[in-house]
Amino acid sequence: MVRSSLLWCLLVSTCLFTSSSAQAPGFVSLDCGGAELFTDELGLKWTPDDHLIYGETANISVSNETRTQYTTTLRHFPADSRKYCYTLNVTSRNRYLVRATFLYGNFDNNNVYPKFDISLGPTHWATIVISDASIVEVEEMIFLALSPTISVCLSNATTGQPFISTLELRQLNGSMYYTQFEDRFYLSVSARINFGADSEAPVRYPDDPYDRIWESDLLKKANYLVDVADGTMRVSTAMPVDTASNDRPPQKVMQTAVVGTNGSLTYRLNLDGFPGFGWAFTYFAEIEDLAADESRKFRLVLPGQPDLSKAIVNIKENAQGPYRVYEPGYPNISLPFVLSFRFAKTADSSKGPILNALEVSKYVQKSDGSLDATVIADVASLYPSAEWAEEGGDPCLPSPWSWLECNTDTQPRIVTVKLSRMNLTGNIPSDLGKLTGLVELWLDGNSFTGPIPDFSRCPNLQIIHLESNQLAGGLPSSLAKLPNLRELYVQDNLLSGTIPSGLLSKDLNFNYSGNINLRGSGDKRKQLGVIIGSSVGATVLLIATIVSCIFMCKGKKEMKKKKASAELINHPLPIQRVASSLSDAHGEAAHCFTLSEIEEATKKFEKRIGSGGFGIVYYGKMKDGKEIAVKVLASNSYQGKREFTNEVTLLSRIHHRNLVQFLGYCQEDGRNMLVYEYMHNGTLKEHLYGVVPRDRRIGWIKRLEIAEDAARGIEYLHTGCVPAIIHRDLKTSNILLDKHMRAKVSDFGLSKLAVDGTSHVSSIVRGTVGYLDPEYYISQQLTEKSDVYSFGVILLELMSGQEAISNESFGVNCRNIVQWAKMHIDNGDIRGIIDPALAEDEYSLQSMWKIAEKALLCVKPHGSMRPSMSEVLKDIQDAIRIEKETSETRGGVSDEFSRSSAQSSSMNMMGMMDLAGTENFVSIDDSVLHPTPR
């Protein structure tokens, strides 16, 4: 058995610390990668996972104020197709908070920021994306335990290695976080904020007996809490605050608050994991001593949702006095990623609103797991000392155990069991016969004894391997009744009796040799040996013939391709055809125009419509009326000739509606020309800050549609071409617009083919200043992520209407759009980068923020931190959906406070995933339209 190929499981009792610690029962604190027990400065006791034989430990050193257990050790695992699970004991029907933390600290010395998934049992919890080696990423989930154990699994690494710093389990009060949906949904914590905090330090245990982490509103994360209204004042008290029950925020949190002295409190908050449906509650306590004639009444304002903005908070009445907690909220509300909210005082209130704390969690629909989970767990339980039997989590989700294969159903079934040569003894587990979806069963090379069990409940079984065991008894007649059985190997056992006639007459690869007491009727054994030998021999011969033909054909095609490429490179004069696998498949090739055809179409190059380092572009019109653009290579450009050759080769084999259509080429009289379809509306650059008058600039929704078109084209180059194509020179002047203002990507003179997903070392870095990937520039390692960087710059140009490089537009010491935009976005000032030509009533800040966030991810300094073009495309499409949905409600907010807020923020319900209208989701009670105290 190869130990590294197996997964691991950790069983931890939730009562470890109850006898000697003052902390609440049900606390588990695992120091992953640690080597000894210790108690931290908060009084929490930490246990190492040093007895684990899976994964590797690493020491890290990070200079920050994070507590010891985060900054010294971690445990990491291979970046393979398997999952790695911790299994924690819990008490059924109790609620728990589980928290996992991740501090990269460059433990692998590679500076490759990891990206991987974390799951709670079979349910996807979150995708961990590391973007800073010294920042602790925290994920929290609140769940109702329905079984004696719960598993936390790491899997699906797309960059780097999965790792974990700590894993914590906190048992909650019986009534805490109850929702009517908890049997089918978990609560993934997105925000838990202490307003008016006196420092950036969070409030947690022992102030909070359940060790919830209440983050300070002073925390200066990028885009955390911004857009704070003028007149916001911080207040606090030393007086005790009556929280009434332990499930409310701790007293230390409620003793601080913010007050809107000008009549309003306004914030913009990023909600991790959203958009979606969530659970959101606010906490209020009057901690100022109001005079008898003073009052504090206010309402919540959610732009775009007037129905949720009507209820009035009157703390004196709602909380029944000062220094008592009132907690209105919504147990089921649709929220966006960027939440803009406001509290505004009513006309009859003398005091502005107050806010002490806020909690927001997202509903995460639970996966029911695999249908065979219980059955296969019973099988594994028969072998408690075997490493393969201790793999944690669901047997199929999010990835299968190492010895299983599952189908792809929503609730998957096990289709393959592979336990060959595992030194297994005893009888074959009869529970295997309950796997009704089983297709293949491999139990060969063990020491099983006893009879072959009944597999009549497995109608899909095709392959059974039981050879080289010590099985006794006869062959069950039920095997002959399996309708799909095509391979049965039982040789080298101790089987006896007569072979059922149904097996001998079945069209089946059947080997029963080596069972001296097992016989068929007549001379069947010899017949069978001949049949098997002939079948196998014929099969091998047929396969060999097919493989030979394939390689011969492939060799001929490769020789043709190499010959064509060599001719194009070495003989730049008359070429009749540039072929590729794609054009061959469609019976197409690059058309070779004559010089006289080109001169006639362009009226001897009369109308010039563009130029670049390659040469000049001319307008032309063919005899059939088709309009064309002719790119004429500069005669003195040696590099241009190479680009010409490259572009002909590439464009001959790619076809996509968002790539400018390549019509052909001309090489005559020493001139090299490329012929494209004519794009009537010029370049995106001209429409953003070129010849088009500023008052006629394209609107935001059209800019998003252009971005979507261009992203589709780039995505095709990266994922739809084999090998993939890297453009290398993405910029607004290479995005062209047709007569319908649909965008197409052009200019492949600098493009490169990607080979086997590897990066490319280039002695000469190519691209355009302002769009050039800095990592590519420094390392000369070219990947698809270099295009992603350039596209991020284009997104920023679409938002701002500014050029990528400017000496005047971006202020002192800042010449490029990336630095300028990042400075504004990190400070929450998105309006500072929005193109003034865009009217405020024609765009949603929600969609602006979504594009801004994605653009900053695209221009991350390291390619591993950037999204794929597919991910970028998805967010652009989400932004378009936001705009279309927002346009229906824009101008429809009647409340005076909502009207003013709608101008500053649009809270669109992204995705519109109405739980009432989605299959398998819970229904919404009308009562959620009014805030409800917990």
Topology record:
Elements: E1 11-12, E2 27-31, E3 38-39, E4 45-48, E5 56-59, H1 68-71, E6 73-76, E7 84-89, E8 95-102, E9 115-120, E10 123-129, E11 137-144, E12 149-159, E13 163-164, E14 166-171, E15 185-194, E16 215-216, E17 225-226, E18 232-236, H2 251-254, E19 256-260, E20 264-270, E21 276-283, E22 297-301, E23 312-314, H3 315-318, E24 329-335, E25 338-345, E26 354-355, E27 357-365, H4 373-381, E28 404-406, E29 414-418, E30 425-427, E31 440-442, E32 447-449, E33 463-465, E34 472-473, E35 487-489, E36 494-498, H5 501-504, E37 509-511, E38 517-519, H6 524-570, H7 581-585, E39 591-592, H8 595-602, E40 608-612, E41 615-621, E42 627-633, H9 638-651, E43 662-668, E44 671-677, H10 684-689, H11 700-720, E45 725-726, E46 735-737, E47 743-745, E48 752-753, E49 760-761, H12 774-779, E50 781-782, H13 784-800, H14 817-826, H15 845-858, H16 869-889, H17 896-904
Parallel strand pairs: 1-7, 2-4, 15-16, 29-31, 30-32, 31-33, 33-35, 34-36, 35-37, 36-38, 39-43
Antiparallel strand pairs: 2-14, 3-4, 5-6, 6-13, 7-12, 8-11, 8-14, 9-10, 9-12, 11-15, 15-27, 17-20, 18-19, 19-26, 20-25, 21-24, 21-27, 22-23, 22-25, 28-29, 40-41, 41-42, 42-44, 43-44, 45-48, 46-47, 49-50
